[in-house]
Amino acid sequence: MLIAAHDDGSHIEASRDLPTATYLCPMCESQVILKRGRKVAAHFAHAPNSDCPGAEPESWRHLLAKQVLAEQFKVLGWGARIEVPHPAAPPG
Ligand SMILES: [Zn+2]
């Protein structure tokens, strides 16, 4: 996932230059790990064996597609937010 939450509830987008800190999943509020690989876009990941719906693995193409789409929508003037649960999604 590309978004995590801080202790104060504010959300932050994953990037390589984020400081080491405690980041939380916005869905289940468990701690997530900032991953800053060279081939994959910076993202947050749950600990192994998490049962959170947001813990499903995402390919680098999926992560990149979400970033590109959000950026392009913003360029067009359409407010775009990523990692927002759909109202029809089952509760986490
Ligand atoms: Zn979660």
Strand count: 5
The percent range for strand residues is: 15-25%
Distance from N terminus to C terminus (CA atoms, Å) equals 15 Å
Helix residue percentage: 10-25%
Give the helices and strands as they follow along the chain.
EEEEEH
Properties at a glance:
two-stranded antiparallel sheet, three-stranded antiparallel sheet, 92 residues, binds zinc ion, alpha+beta, 5 strands, 1 helix
Furnish the topology, listing elements before pairings.
Blueprint: E1 3-5, E2 11-13, E3 23-24, E4 31-35, E5 43-45, H1 60-75
Antiparallel strand pairs: 1-2, 3-4, 4-5
Bound molecules: zinc ion.
Task: Report a brief summary of the structure.
The chain has one helix at 60-75, and strands at 3-5, 11-13, 23-24, 31-35, 43-45.
Fold and architecture overview:
The protein is of the alpha+beta class and 92 residues long. The chain has one domain. Strands 3-4-5 form a three-stranded antiparallel sheet, with no helix packed on it. A two-stranded antiparallel sheet has the order 1-2. It has one helix at residues 60-75, and strands at 3-5, 11-13, 23-24, 31-35, 43-45. It binds zinc ion (ZN). Zinc ion is lined by residues 25, 27-28, 30, 46, 52, 54-55. Zinc ion binds next to loops.
